[in-house]
Amino acid sequence: MALIVALPIGTPPQTQQMVLDTGSQLSWIQCHKKKAPRRPPPTTSFDPSLSSSFSVLPCNHPLCKPRIPDFTLPTSCDQNRLCHYSYFYADGTYAEGNLVREKFTFSSSQSTPPLILGCALDQDPSEQAEGILGMNLGRLSFPSQAKITRFSYCVPLRRSYAKITPTGAFYLGRNPYSRTFQYVNLLTFPRSERMPNLDPLAFTVGMVGIRIGEKKLNISASVFRPSAGGAGQTMIDSGTEFTFLVDEAYSKIGRLIGNMVLEFDKGVQIAVDKERHLADVGGGVHCLGIGRSQMLGVPSNIIGNFHQQNLWVEFDLANRRVGFGRADCSRSV
Questions:
Q1: Which CATH architecture has domain 176-331?
Q2: Cis ω before 156 (30° cut-off from 0)
Q3: Rounded to 10 degrees, what is the CA torsion of 236, 171, 111, 319?
Q4: Contact at 8 Å (CB) between 35 and 71?
């Protein structure tokens, strides 16, 4: 299940449904191809012709022709002399389009400055979302560009029998419940220590083990930490649905017959009730919500949103830490 947030973009604002993704950098929206304006704005794409604050990035923009190539966001000059981007995600999906500048307009008196976004013309949007809200530590992520130092979300409990999509919560700024949160520090990696298998822009935390019921699994804490080559980092990712573990950890999971606890530095824990081990994938089929990270082609441990249900997750960028707090997310708005 993707975490969808509705945000007002442009002047006047057009509401866009975007996937909240702490695992990626660039935010992008699905743009309407036709040049002729139409009203009301389309429900499945953003119409640039209706916004007075929209502009495109030309080829000579420093971001399009950086002195040092930015491999996290490949750019090039297209046939119209506009800055073209291409972006691969861990699950193999691909997005491309032109880089543009546009505001997020929350009210007549509150808006962001023009931010660099992707304007995708060829992506087929999902039934629910029209873009991605990139929230990682990259310089082009939404928090970095908008100067947001804290944000948090609460993932509602999935109910396979529910006829309506459950609603959670999303905060930009301080969370009113944060005094009850447990915090774990983010692991940082200087540029001089960058490793080939490491994602330096991810929210990497110090995981130390997994417990099933009262039994702690025989997994070395080093399995959850980056090796000399960067493999093994543990990241909190709202954009990935399930949790993925490297083989050394996945092979020890076995049958989950009790509550599962993910253990982190400073005694911080994420507790998962045994009733939430299995995911309903349709057709009466239920699968374990944990997979091998090898399936994604990344040698990392990823805590997906399936194991963040009924949990406040706060990203405190100023203090470089992540907070967790138990909640009934359907009642946290």
A1: Beta Barrel (2.40)
A2: no
A3: -60
A4: no
Residue 56 tokens, joined: 């495109």
Start-end ranges of CATH 2.40.70.10 in the chain?
Answer: 4-148, 176-331
- The answer for residues whose C-beta is within 8 angstroms of residue 298's C-beta and 6 or more apart is 90, 197, 199, 244
Among candidate residues 191, 182, 72, the one with its CA nearest the CA of residue 136:
72
Question: pLDDT class for 160, splitting at 50, 70, 90?
Answer: low
CATH architecture of 4-148: Beta Barrel (2.40)
Enumerate the active-site residues. Answer: 21, 237
Please write the tens of the pLDDT for every residue from 169-210: 999 999 999 999 999 999 988 776 678 889 999 999 999 999
Question: Running DSSP on this structure, what letter comes out for residue 48?
Answer: G
Query: What is the pTM assigned to this prediction?
Result: 0.91
Alpha-carbon torsion 233, 234, 237, 241, what sign?
positive
Q: Worst-scoring range by mean pLDDT, 2-11, 29-38, 241-250?
A: 29-38
Per-residue pLDDT at 122:
61
